[in-house]
Structure formats: structure tokens, C-alpha cells
Amino acid sequence: MSTRDFIEKDYYGALGVSQNADAAEIKKAYRKLARDLHPDKNPGNADAEARFKEVSEAYDVLSDPKRRGEYDEARRLFGAGGAGARAGFPGGFPGAGGGGQPFDLGDLFGAAGNAGRAGAGGLGDLFGNLFGGGGAGTPPGSARARQQAASGPARGQDVETEATLSFDEAVLGVTVPLRMQSPGTCPTCAGSGAKPGTSPHTCPVCDGAGVTSRSQGAFAFSEPCRNCRGSGQVVDDPCPTCAGNGVTTQTRTITVRIPAGVKDGQRIRLAGKGAPGRRGGPAGDLFVVVHVSDHELFGRRGDDLTLTVPVTFPEAVLGTTLTVPALDGNVTLKVPAGTSSGRTLRVRGRGVPGRGRSGDLLVTIEVAVPQRLSPEAERAVKTLDAELGDPRPQITAATQTRGSDR
Predict the structure, then answer these.
(1) Is the dihedral of CA 332, 337, 341, 344 positive or negative?
(2) Is 47 helix (H, G, I), strand (E, B) or coil?
(3) What is the pLDDT at residue 72?
(4) Please, what are the domains in the chain?
(5) How far apart are CA 291 and CA 166, in angstroms?
(6) Is 190 marked as binding a ligand?
């Protein structure tokens, strides 16, 4: 949508609604007109087709609250239509002279914005989002800003790939080669887009600016140059490999260092390893999405590793010392006497390595209950049961009442 459209076109009139119409009225008017003017209902009717496009364009703007606000503000400041805009400034615009010479609307916004900094706001600030902006020292919306945007360096696209790691590799860190397909600088033309032996030349239409300007009454409007498609360069003899784009899809292998402690689904950013930039712009970034396989023994809870270790009933009752596995070797663990099933013991510093403090290894004790007993073992258990008595607290009416009150 050009700036001229915002000033010259009457979208409310196209839909037949007032400027105060709400969203429901605008939608209702559009639907009725779209049904009546649809090309399928009016085959071969060029007027109906043109009107259908006009109605659709109007609805696209007025149905979007942000764009509608920008449209209303532009018409409020510059009048409804090109003639109204000129009439809003008796004697012509500043710098236009008595003959009403055309000028660049973006330059007006830039100048107004600079003047407004001394006071409150200014047209350049007001229309910063509507007409675009430039770099430091470049007035937003000016011809220079548009030329920089069209023909200046362009950053390359970001690229994403995936890597599947074992549980140990994710916890301890690993260096892996990644074979991937992604855009890269064409090896035949070195990114110029021109056939070897030839070179691009400056576009004769826009003189390398990438944009062209045309006058409309008192305004001068800029748009991307159609001859060079906004690049500022023309390739007469395109490269046969990339068809003049300067970029091809390439298979490459890069070595990536995966830091210790990455989690499943984590994205690792590698700056400058994405698609190459255009016109001397920087390359994009490469994002590696990590997938971590499960471990047959260990689980993970943040930076802590979890492990379940079975012990026998006598070991739980009398206590014991166990040797349990860790990712970086074995560790000795003392199980206190009287340990119940489900108790978790902590081994500090043997979890996921970290830059500061490493995680811990959390060992959960599980008392193994035999499924079958020999007659001798069964008699021994019964004897032990008789010696120990019933360790469970006696359940009385009072304890039941207290429990129900919680």
C-alpha cells in the first residue's frame, strides 16, 4: 500500500459507510458488495471486476484497526484526496514555490520530525511507522532512507537444523558434525548472480538507488525500481547455476560444540552460520534444535540426575554401603539403618555439570520384596514378625476424627 493510496483513495466511500462506522457495519457492507460484484457472478464485466478489487482493498485497510487509524490520520492531516491535500496549505507547501513544484513527501516528514524534536512530536515521529525509517541521522520516510532500505546490505536468513544426542552427550557435552542443506553463496559466480566472465552493472533506470520516484500533483512518490527489482544492479547474463540469484542450496558439514547440560528441545544459536547476506550484508544465524534420547538408568530433574536403586529387606533394616553408577563413574553410597522404601539420598556434585555449581545425583531407595519364599524363609519371616510386633500406629476413633478434620 503506497502513501498516495492513503491520501487519495476514499475507502469509506468505496464501501458506502460513514467514517464513524464500526467494525460490524464495515464487515456487513463489504460482504454485500462482494457478493454482488464477485467475478463469478459477473463474468466478463470489467467494471464489476474493478469495483470488486476496490471494495476488497478498502476492506483490507478498514478491517485492520492499526491500518485504519493510520489511514484516518493521514486523511485528517492532508485532506481527503490529492486536491484537498494541496488546498490544506494555502499558497502551496513550504519550498514548493509559486509554481507548486513537486517535492518528496518523505522529506517533508523528515524535516517536520527534526523540527518537532525541539518541541512536542512532529510529523516525522507521527508517521514513523507509516512511511518507514532510516538509520542514524537519516530522517524517517526520506528518499535517502528508502534508497538505503532498497539497495543497502541485507542480512541473510536464519537457518534451523536438528541434532539427536545420547543422554550422556547432552549431560556432559559433545562436539558433533552436522550435515545439513541450507542456502549458501553460489560457488560459480561467488554471489554476484552474473555468469563467470561477466559482472552486474548499475541499473540505468534508478542509477543504483534501487528506487524510482514519480510525481503526482504536488507529491513525489518513491517505489522499488521495476527494472532491477530494487537491487540497484542489473545482470544481463545470469549465472547458470543460481539463475542470477547469487545463492544456491548447498550441502555442508559444520562442527558444532554442544555445551554440557543441554535439555531436550533446547535451541542453540550459532551466530553468523546461517544463510549468507546480500549486497554485503551479514549472514544469518544457525539454530540447532537438540533432541535427547532417554537413558536406561538415569532420569533428569533440572540439573539433578535421578536413579532408583533396589535393596533387600535386611539391607534396609540393618543399613548397608552400596556402589551405585554415575555418569562419570561409580560412587559409594551409605544407606542408613531403618531406611524405608521411597527414601531419596543425595550425592552432591555428581549430577549435570555446570559453570558454577553442578547438579546432584538423587538416589531413591526401593526395597525389593521377594515374590516366592522357601518354607524355611517363610518360617523365618513369621518368626521375625512375631519378634517385631506390629510397628503400625493403632487406629482409633480419635485419630480417625482428627484425620477427617484436616
Answers:
(1) negative
(2) helix
(3) 85
(4) 3-136 (1.10.287.110), 157-200+240-294 (2.60.260.20), 299-388 (2.60.260.20)
(5) 9
(6) no
**What is the 8-class DSSP label of residue 44?**
T
What are 239's three cell numbers? 549465472
Confidence of residue 382 (pLDDT cuts 50, 70, 90): confident
Each residue of 141-170: pLDDT tens digit? Answer: 444 454 444 455 778 888 888 899 999 999
The reply, when asked if residue 206 is annotated as ligand binding, is yes
Residue 42: pLDDT band by 50, 70, 90 thresholds? confident
189 annotated among ligand-binding-site residues: yes
Report the SS3 class of residue 21.
coil
- Cβ 330 vs Cβ 323: under 8 Å: yes
Listed in sequence order, the residues at least 6 apart from 349 whose beta carbon sits closer than 8 Å to its beta carbon are: 357, 358, 360
Is 376 within any annotated ligand binding site?
A: no
**What's the pLDDT at 279?**
65
Helix, strand and coil percent figures for the chain, each rounded to 5: 30, 25, 45
The tens digit of pLDDT for each residue in 279-316 reads 677 888 989 999 999 999 999 998 899 999 999 988 99
Integer Cα distance of 76 and 126 in angstroms:
13
**228 is annotated as contributing to ligand binding:** yes
Cα 210 to Cα 297: distance, rounded to the nearest angstrom? 62
**End-to-end alpha-carbon separation of the chain, Å?**
67
Q: Is 239 annotated as a binding residue?
A: yes
Task: Report long-range pairs for 185-189 (Cβ below 8 Å, ≥24 apart).
Answer: 185/246, 185/247, 185/276, 186/239, 186/241, 186/242, 186/245, 186/246, 186/247, 186/248, 187/241, 187/248, 187/250, 188/239, 188/240, 188/241, 188/242, 189/239, 189/241, 189/242, 189/246
Answer yes or no: are the C-beta atoms of 351 and 327 closer than 8 Å: no
